Amino acid sequence: MSLKEYGPGLEGVIAAETELSFLDTEKEKIVIRGYDLIELSKTNDYLDIVHLLLEGELPKEKEKEKTVEKLKENYDLPMEIFSIMKLLPKNTHPMDGLRTGLSALAGYDTDIENRHLDINKERGYRLLGQLPTVTVNAHRILNGKEAILPNPLLTYSANFLYMITGEVPEDWQTEIFDRSLLLYSEHEMPNSTFAARVIASTNSDMYGALTGAVASLKGHLHGGANEAVMYMLNDASTVADFEEQLYQKLVKKEKVMGFGHRVYMKKMDPRALIMKESLKQLSEKDGDFLLLEMCEAGEKVMREEKGLYPNLDYYAAPVYWKLGIPIELYTPIFFSARTVGLAAHVVEQHSNNRLFRPRVRYIGKDY
Q1: Which residues form a coiled coil (predicted)?
Q2: Within a 10 A sphere around the Cβ of 197, how many other Cβ atoms?
Q3: Mean pLDDT in residue range 205-213
Q4: DSSP 3-state assignment of 152?
Q5: Which residues contact 140 (CB under 8 A, 6 or more apart)?
Q6: SS3 per residue for 197-261
Q7: What's the rounded Cα separation, in Å, for the pair 33 and 42?
Q8: Which whole-number Å values give the CA distances from 42 to 172, 173, 186, 216, 314, in the listed order?
Q9: Is the pTM of this model over 0.90?
Q10: What CATH code is carried by the domain that includes residue 39?
Q11: Would you state the pLDDT for residue 237?
Q12: Which of the following is catalytic: 45, 96, 178, 313?
């Protein structure tokens, strides 16, 4: 590329070659190692995607059982991690608590300088097992609650939801939550994944790369959008209130969270459609359709006024609300789900590495 060429925000710039995923906007597919993620969401669960991303293929029954055991072996945390969380100021955001806990885990990896493919994969499984426990307890401890320990008798997603709510979930609740984790698992090269790969390209360890990804994902222009959506919905009490809120934001030229995507410019994020169906399912369960009606009305307003369509966060937010998940945990859950994709990217980066070192277009004073 010529130094005269410039894509603001690196838009249109190819930054890496990958076998992991691709957003094919022409065929309207989110490709995960050759599979359509949306189709996978109809027949497979999150742990199938974990195996697919880290091992390169969907698991057979015995391989799935092995994945389950690997994760359960890593549910527990060193007790010192809880002590570190207790030292954080109480106004710390759970994403910052998660970032601190994740970074601290590096000290317990006795082989941290080993970048071998198999070691890196095992590191990915270890973090997948540990991070739900970190995620939930960062929030609990910062809110003055006692830490909750994982329940190894539950499935991965059921245990995650149990730690969040303190109650063993029904199968249908677990299924909806698991589907959300699957949809958040991997999405090509968003800012947080790029941040992780840039850090990994220096030959830094997986913990450092993922810690940088947490910082990236915290931003409202990336993962923080799901929290912002729920706050918007809660600021309205009727469909008309929500529509008026959106019109006012548009008049003031404020960004409306949950709409628009750098890749999905002219159509709805296909993951959002799946979460919309989950919201319908939850609404039918509790008989309360207000959030669904508000979201559908908001979808129409933004399409007609701005030509924008919902992304995954727009419908994931009310789904998490109906599952009883605190708003402050929406983005940390996003990160926990994306851990497998991030780990797979770090593994890939370390396996065929080249240091990222872009150039700039100088627009300063003459010299």
Answers
A1: none
A2: 24
A3: 98
A4: coil
A5: 146, 147, 148
A6: HHHHCCCCCHHHHHHHHHHHHCCCCCCCHHHHHHHHHHCCCCHHHHHHHHHHHHHCCCCCCCECC
A7: 17
A8: 14, 16, 16, 30, 20
A9: yes
A10: 1.10.580.10
A11: 96
A12: 313
What is the pLDDT, as a whole number, of residue 37?
A: 97
Whether 275 and 221 have beta carbons less than 8 Å apart is answered as: no
| Domain annotation covers residue 11 | no
pLDDT band for position 10 (cuts 50, 70, 90): confident
> Is 261 among the residues known to form the active site?
yes
Which residue among the candidates 261, 269, 345, 350 is catalytic per the annotation? Answer: 261
Residue 11's pLDDT band (cuts 50, 70, 90) = confident
Whether 274 contacts 179, CB under 8 Å = yes
Active site residue 313: yes
In the predicted model, is pLDDT for residue 30 greater than 70? yes
Q: How far apart are CA 28 and CA 6, in angstroms?
A: 27
Residues 88 and 190 in one domain: yes
In this structure, are 89 and 156 located in the same domain? yes
